[in-house]
């Protein structure tokens, strides 16, 4: 019996505004648990969750693990390089073998766009997309929405510009879907070589100059240049990119208002963002990381609500 989110969380494109608000509102009380000296509630006691990571991750993997442990779930981390995937086992065979050990949820990060859906359609466990190729990174999108809503009060009518390597960014796609559904105005800014051809069809404004984006926006979400996904020469050099599109203190000082600065991490300091901006008074980058744990607790809790045995544990454990 699916709960308020259905069986899986694969992306924000398929969620309604009501589901997004439910997720954000559910995350707010979960933040308090992380401030306690004993950071644990019994909400998911008895649930077994596998974190299946086929790509490197610091924030997302550790944040999911904290979220799971703070809800008292039993967690297992599987890194592809140290599993039978390295011997040629398929994604589905790996997941089916894990299911044979009676798991409840799989959190998956994978370099292929669509991998999370492919898995969700083939296993009974709840599947949570922790980033698939250039498709979506829904929990990153949610933590960005929560951080922006905290600071701006509402997202409706607020102006958020996503800066940089939109072409390779699953974070950009999840942000565009989430922000537009919640009534924000969204823009992208970067070299044309790093913007998808059809980005205008996603209902966003396109800025070619960072100065114009800064003049327009209430918040900048600065993306990492994904050097590992770039096979061709998308930009002349990192130095040139910083000179033309870098988010620098000098540029922000000329803005008509104080802008919130977000970055999903990991940062290339001195390339897409300068250190005095990343560490400056308007940066909410570490608030994003804090909110990540609460948002992931909310996702786990709401997905568990669709499973009768876990819903029962959630009711007795409380949030
Ligand atoms: N923001 C993000 O996904 O970071 P990681 O790659 O470290 O998980």
Write the layout of secondary structure elements.
Elements: H1 17-35, E1 48-53, H2 59-70, E2 74-79, H3 91-100, E3 105-110, H4 115-120, E4 126-132, H5 138-152, E5 159-163, H6 170-181, E6 185-189, E7 205-207, H7 210-216, E8 219-222, H8 238-245, H9 249-253, E9 260-262, H10 275-278, H11 285-304, H12 308-317
Parallel strand pairs: 1-2, 1-3, 3-4, 5-6, 5-8, 6-7, 8-9
Helix pairs in contact: 1-5, 1-11, 2-11, 5-6, 5-11
Bound molecules: phosphoric acid mono(formamide)ester.
Phosphoric acid mono(formamide)ester binds next to helix 2.
Short overview:
The protein has 319 residues and is of the alpha/beta class.
Molecular shape:
globular
Could you spell the SSE succession in H and E letters?
Answer: HEHEHEHEHEHEEHEHHEHHH
- The percentage helix is 40-55%
The strands making up the biggest β-sheet line up spatially as 7-6-5-8-9
Strand content: 5-15%
**Mind telling me the C-alpha Rg?**
19 Å
Structural class: alpha/beta
Number of helices: 12
Number of extended strands: 9
Distance from first to last alpha carbon: 21 Å
What is the averaged pLDDT score? 93
């Amino acid at each position: 019996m699916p709960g308020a989110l259905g069986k899986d969380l694969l992306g924000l494109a398929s969620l309604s505004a009501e589901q997004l608000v439910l997720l954000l509102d559910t995350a707010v009380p979960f933040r308090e648990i992380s401030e306690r000296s004993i950071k644990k509630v019994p909400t998911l006691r008895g649930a077994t969750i596998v974190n299946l990571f086929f790509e490197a991750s610091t924030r997302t993997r550790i944040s999911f693990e904290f979220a799971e442990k703070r809800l008292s779930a039993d967690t297992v981390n599987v890194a592809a390089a140290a599993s039978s995937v390295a011997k040629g086992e398929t994604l589905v065979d790996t997941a089916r073998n894990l299911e044979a050990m009676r798991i409840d949820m799989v959190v998956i990060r994978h370099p292929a766009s669509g991998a999370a859906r492919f898995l969700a359609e083939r296993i009974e466990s709840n599947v949570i997309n922790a980033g698939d190729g250039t498709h979506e990174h829904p929990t990153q999108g949610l933590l960005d929405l929560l951080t922006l809503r905290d600071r701006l009060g509402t997202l409706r009518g607020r102006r958020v510009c996503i800066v940089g390597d939109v072409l390779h960014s699953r974070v950009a796609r999840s942000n565009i879907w989430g922000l537009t559904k919640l009534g924000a105005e969204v823009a992208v800014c970067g070299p044309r070589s790093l913007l998808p051809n059809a980005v205008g069809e996603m209902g966003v404004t396109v800025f070619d100059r960072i100065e114009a984006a800064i003049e327009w926006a209430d918040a900048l979400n600065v993306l990492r240049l994904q050097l590992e996904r770039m096979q061709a020469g998308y930009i002349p050099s990192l130095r040139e990119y910083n000179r033309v599109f870098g988010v620098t203190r000098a540029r922000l000082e000329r803005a008509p208002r104080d802008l919130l600065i977000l970055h999903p991490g990991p940062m290339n300091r001195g390339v897409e963002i300068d250190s005095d901006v990343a560490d400056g008074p308007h940066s909410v980058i570490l608030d994003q990381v804090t909110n990540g744990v609460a948002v992931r607790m909310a996702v786990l809790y709401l997905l568990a609500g669709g499973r009768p045995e876990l819903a029962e544990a959630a009711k007795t454990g409380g949030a």
